[in-house]
């Protein structure tokens, strides 16, 4: 019986662990007679998955007249498209909304819905329509219309699930939930939403007296409190901000859960997907510094059973300065997700809406390699094929090119060949790669509460702006950037979930002067029970709402200090004149100094290391990033002080080296994010790899090197500095195709008795070295009897 499961961090299809490698093809933007050619292009690129939205606005132009069979336009025959996907041997990921965005008018919601039923539109606090005219997600009338749409579209989708012999293996619930509120900095004050907020408060506090006590208000009823809140009453206490934003996490989860119930009632049984927005454009650049805001909004939705949280990754130009955006987006998404969920990107950049800024094949190559190196086990390129907006559904006109690997005429663009090479590799080794886990040296904390800034009222702006500045410059582009660039590999820990010293020996936690009391308590316990905590760049003295709270400082006896803002210079572990953006000045502390600042012949401590209980705490009271390359030496020295050492290194400081391993089987990812060629030795624990052979990586390129990789009985790739794009084996025979990255590479094979090869001569002591290989070549091995 066909099956689709999510378990042990992998997609398991018909009992086989599967790396999903897919591309977005919008059937509603491609002529029906051209569907087959586009699907063949996707399959030839090594993909096993095709994804598409199913836009409600296009299929139900007039209320009650739903066309999913091609009655009004041939391209609307959804079943025909899904049948063709099955015929081509591809899986399908369907995304039927209700919202789809996708540069479609009204974000994919039928225009008649908001025009005929204006009461469903979200409202500002003053009662006017929300600036984006997003609907109030849980409005009963909206859900009634969605229920009817789901019932109709699922009549087509449900029989086409893989579990029933069709191609559909994944089903997305809505799209980028909460994004429109974030980008407009506007919540929804629709009366239905406020009623839900009132129910939430009653459940949480029980009495209005308890609610008033919490927030310093004097309402005589819950409804009075809600009305006062809507009007902006109450002081500037951040308790109101956090109350409202935490409610929205619950609200988003309940909305998504409702959609899931609708789908299950209609017979949908494959895993569900919740996609997360957050990469943001800054002029001609894109960054992931705000991606965690989307994770914070949807972190409760991650707990929905059978739902997979999937990120939308749009970094733009991928280079040395911003590759850590992808690292952090990957590990943060994994941290928030349930343990059994694989790391998946539902929208994985292979193009961009506009033709400027320009993307290049190297961008597609590096985003893919980076995220796979850091644990990704499924991805869906967006967009993979271009198209055309029919019936005036496009916001930006008729054309929808998106710099896609396949253009609107069905012709490959340069990045298509890049995708095809990656697809061939993953088709060859993907089922083994999904079992390999990233080798990590430490863990970093991800606190979703640090990103409860999706919507901020003006009265709360000063504190939230300070938090946003510090989390970006001192954490994201600060310590976490340095760890990434120094090849100190890490996973992330969701600090809202339980964690222990046994599971997490070392932990880096960003802090301002404000931290939730429960988290302070758990961090103190973590250290006292044997954990090693690196706390930076401040020590909390208040809770999130501004009330005095020194649980962590008092439990670990962290001394007395003050924050010295602004640029400064300190000495760190014998390294002089280290530029920092802020520091602490300790008047009293116990421990070994780590960072010192000299002022008027007086040495002031800015960071120190001490034992506490059964563990250790390193108070790293300096704000530092990679403004200068010498700061990489600083972070390595600080990490070593708590026993953290990267196991991989190179002669050049600008290469990234990450390993995924399954037992002795190793996948070594080496990336050159710079604009110049890199020639270097690689080292593991200080010992040269590949028998001392140097590797050469072209500008902005990467490689996946195999080590200890069995290809047949008694036939093992000891190491390869070429990439394998095809491999097959039968009893007594094996063949593989390899391709060099850069100038050339070598292959070393461990061969049992009787094995021979068509290239390279006879093995010496059971080892055969083949190379230099400077062009794609197919190697054949056979066993003589």
Short description:
This protein is α/β, with parallel strands linked by helices and 785 residues long. Helices cover 28% and strands 30% of the residues. Belongs to the glycosyl hydrolase 35 family.
Task: Describe this protein's structure.
β28 and β29 form a beta hairpin. This protein is an alpha/beta fold and 785 residues long. It starts with a strand and ends with a strand. The radius of gyration is 28 Å and the shape is globular. Strands 18-17-19-20-25-24-23-21-22-26 form a 10-stranded mixed sheet, with helices on both faces. Helix content is 28%, strand content 30%. The protein folds into 3 domains: 4-182 and 266-436, TIM Barrel (Alpha-Beta Barrel); 442-641, Class I glutamine amidotransferase (GATase) domain (Rossmann fold); 648-783, beta-galactosidase, domain 2 (3-layer Sandwich).
- Tell me the number of strands: 41
* Structural class designation: alpha/beta
- In total, the number of domains comes to 3
> Which outline best applies?
globular
Strand content: 25-35%
Give me the CATH fold name of the largest domain.
Answer: TIM Barrel
**Overall pLDDT:** 97
Number of helices: 18
CATH architecture of the largest domain: Alpha-Beta Barrel
Q: CATH homologous superfamily of the largest domain? A: Glycosidases
State the oligomer: single chain
The order of strands across the largest sheet is 18-17-19-20-25-24-23-21-22-26
What would you report as the Rg, rounded to the nearest angstrom? 28 Å
InterPro entries: Class_I_gatase-like (IPR029062), GH (IPR017853), GLMA-like_second (IPR054746), Gly_Hdrlase_35_cat (IPR031330), Glycoside_Hdrlase_35 (IPR001944)
Family: Belongs to the glycosyl hydrolase 35 family.
GO molecular function, one term: hydrolase activity, hydrolyzing O-glycosyl compounds
Protein name: Beta-galactosidase
